[in-house]
């Protein structure tokens, strides 16, 4: 049996209930096999066994009191997966679906994504099954303070630097930072995604969505195409989706559909992003409100957003939101490229279907790396105690996304992978981390 299969079977036997983690591990392990087979040191040094076992996984109780005086207990997680190339770095997800498997899958993916950025950041992820939706600001603050009261002892500017993710936006990061500072008396870059008045970076809010579109532009340019004039469908209407839409529109694309977890809107004339921002960022309401701004648009709670014909599909909501049937529909409707703004939004069979149909498929760990890249730039600014201009950060982001594409292209050429960006991204990220792990000895 090959080394990769042996390691995967061991994982599957040890963690039968961690479906999302196994899915991510299988995808990475399978695609890096050609590189693993080339270097016997990986097996000798048990690189894959060490890479798939987190350095540590911290689980903790998060008690808090709601506005009626009722006590709630949520579960907090921080998985510090791998710090071979830098301090652990990865977001905090606040969503009722959060469990250890999801945090491990995200933390594992983060190792390779962070390596691809070319910046010195390791992989980690955390979060809680707390749902900020429908909670008052005071309740969210009570949760965040309780969460940080345990988390603070495990993190630090040179140790582990959490950030936002689903459910963790500027408000939550502010409360978390306030509590960290209060407990430790340290004013340091321990979180990213901070507000601009206390160490945040310009362009961090936009980074993941903008970076996704920059990455897709690189892919299209290599085929003699551009974003301009393309019809685009974007799932989600959160941070990633909103700024992907903004950049796509700036570059001349027509975005015709967006969604939230209740339904999706179709606007043949092109999405009115100001309306989406008002509904989602200001009023924190449901996307169904969109039709009150644009009466000619349609709102659907049935059917699939992926039924809308498009040239570019950008899934930017959550994991496994685009399945095989969706892929078939998109292909039938002539989709040219798919870029994952979310983490693992495409099921493995759908991803394979795109690739075998010749659709350009950009995996999240490359396509959405712009967010963590600018987070790392936020860390640099905090260490320097300086703030760079929006244009400077945006320019660096563009360069980083082009650099990621370049690394992937080089691996694809070396291994004869054609346009298999999944294998290209996994191998490029893996080789960098594995090289550092080999250098550090058995630790
Ligand atoms: P947000 O919480 O800002 O937005 C998430 C969006 O997805 C919302 O529109 C939400 O709808 C929708 N959504 C969430 N869960 C589901 C579900 N089960 N079914 C359908 N829709 C759903 O998160 P982000 O935009 O920050 O993150 C989106 C994805 O991008 C995640 O996979 C995240 O891990 C990934 N990512 C984010 C980065 C960042 O910088 N923010 C960086 C790299 C990756 P609703 O409002 O109804 O909940």
From TrEMBL:
<dbReference type="InterPro" id="IPR006096">
    <property type="entry name" value="Glu/Leu/Phe/Val/Trp_DH_C"/>
</dbReference>
<dbReference type="InterPro" id="IPR033524">
    <property type="entry name" value="Glu/Leu/Phe/Val_DH_AS"/>
</dbReference>
<comment type="subunit">
    <text>Homohexamer.</text>
</comment>
<feature type="binding site">
    <location>
        <position position="375"/>
    </location>
    <ligand>
        <name>substrate</name>
    </ligand>
</feature>
<feature type="binding site">
    <location>
        <position position="164"/>
    </location>
    <ligand>
        <name>substrate</name>
    </ligand>
</feature>
<dbReference type="Pfam" id="PF00208">
    <property type="entry name" value="ELFV_dehydrog"/>
</dbReference>
<keyword id="KW-0560">Oxidoreductase</keyword>
<protein>
    <recommendedName>
        <fullName>Glutamate dehydrogenase</fullName>
    </recommendedName>
</protein>
<dbReference type="InterPro" id="IPR033922">
    <property type="entry name" value="NAD_bind_Glu_DH"/>
</dbReference>
<dbReference type="Pfam" id="PF02812">
    <property type="entry name" value="ELFV_dehydrog_N"/>
</dbReference>
<feature type="binding site">
    <location>
        <position position="113"/>
    </location>
    <ligand>
        <name>substrate</name>
    </ligand>
</feature>
<feature type="binding site">
    <location>
        <position position="89"/>
    </location>
    <ligand>
        <name>substrate</name>
    </ligand>
</feature>
<comment type="similarity">
    <text>Belongs to the Glu/Leu/Phe/Val dehydrogenases family.</text>
</comment>
<feature type="binding site">
    <location>
        <position position="239"/>
    </location>
    <ligand>
        <name>NAD(+)</name>
    </ligand>
</feature>
<keyword id="KW-0520">NAD</keyword>
<feature type="domain" description="Glutamate/phenylalanine/leucine/valine/L-tryptophan dehydrogenase C-terminal">
    <location>
        <begin position="201"/>
        <end position="441"/>
    </location>
</feature>
<dbReference type="InterPro" id="IPR006095">
    <property type="entry name" value="Glu/Leu/Phe/Val/Trp_DH"/>
</dbReference>
<dbReference type="InterPro" id="IPR014362">
    <property type="entry name" value="Glu_DH"/>
</dbReference>
<dbReference type="GO" id="GO:0005829">
    <property type="term" value="C:cytosol"/>
</dbReference>
<dbReference type="InterPro" id="IPR006097">
    <property type="entry name" value="Glu/Leu/Phe/Val/Trp_DH_dimer"/>
</dbReference>
<dbReference type="GO" id="GO:0000166">
    <property type="term" value="F:nucleotide binding"/>
</dbReference>
<dbReference type="InterPro" id="IPR050724">
    <property type="entry name" value="Glu_Leu_Phe_Val_DH"/>
</dbReference>
<feature type="site" description="Important for catalysis">
    <location>
        <position position="165"/>
    </location>
</feature>
<feature type="binding site">
    <location>
        <position position="208"/>
    </location>
    <ligand>
        <name>NAD(+)</name>
    </ligand>
</feature>
<dbReference type="GO" id="GO:0004354">
    <property type="term" value="F:glutamate dehydrogenase (NADP+) activity"/>
</dbReference>
<dbReference type="InterPro" id="IPR046346">
    <property type="entry name" value="Aminoacid_DH-like_N_sf"/>
</dbReference>
<feature type="active site" description="Proton donor">
    <location>
        <position position="125"/>
    </location>
</feature>
<feature type="binding site">
    <location>
        <position position="110"/>
    </location>
    <ligand>
        <name>substrate</name>
    </ligand>
</feature>
<dbReference type="InterPro" id="IPR036291">
    <property type="entry name" value="NAD(P)-bd_dom_sf"/>
</dbReference>
<keyword id="KW-0547">Nucleotide-binding</keyword>
<dbReference type="GO" id="GO:0006537">
    <property type="term" value="P:glutamate biosynthetic process"/>
</dbReference>
